[in-house]
Amino acid sequence: MKALALLFLLIAANEAKVYGRCELASLLKRNGLDGYYGYSLGNWICMAYYESGFNSRAVGPRNRDGSRDYGIFQINSRYWCDDNEGPTANGCNSPCSAFINDNITEDIACAKRIVSDPQEMDA
């Protein structure tokens, strides 16, 4: 019985954090994204919803160039993080695995880096 309880605990600990809209909005606002580089809190919430369904551990399918998109903002491995699977600019100086956990502070920092880039959200 203890082994079964431990198994369920491990499974629960490995599940993704799917944020509620208001919970995520509060977190993004506390971390300075409301109005950051002209993007409203609504813009960030809309993007997170359509990119990942508010899932902190979302990993997208392979893109045509072989890259993937990671985390709540679907940060791309070709430009912004290193997934050890192909060429990368690694503009956020982070492994892509940093964007697929329940702590989205690194995702937020990278998102700020992305929108401050001359290509902004196009990259």
From TrEMBL:
<comment type="similarity">
    <text>Belongs to the glycosyl hydrolase 22 family.</text>
</comment>
<protein>
    <submittedName>
        <fullName>Lysozyme C, milk isozyme-like</fullName>
    </submittedName>
</protein>
<dbReference type="InterPro" id="IPR000974">
    <property type="entry name" value="Glyco_hydro_22_lys"/>
</dbReference>
<keyword id="KW-1015">Disulfide bond</keyword>
<dbReference type="InterPro" id="IPR001916">
    <property type="entry name" value="Glyco_hydro_22"/>
</dbReference>
<dbReference type="InterPro" id="IPR019799">
    <property type="entry name" value="Glyco_hydro_22_CS"/>
</dbReference>
<dbReference type="InterPro" id="IPR023346">
    <property type="entry name" value="Lysozyme-like_dom_sf"/>
</dbReference>
<keyword id="KW-0732">Signal</keyword>
<dbReference type="GO" id="GO:0003796">
    <property type="term" value="F:lysozyme activity"/>
</dbReference>
<feature type="domain" description="Glycosyl hydrolases family 22 (GH22)">
    <location>
        <begin position="92"/>
        <end position="110"/>
    </location>
</feature>
<dbReference type="Pfam" id="PF00062">
    <property type="entry name" value="Lys"/>
</dbReference>
<feature type="signal peptide">
    <location>
        <begin position="1"/>
        <end position="20"/>
    </location>
</feature>
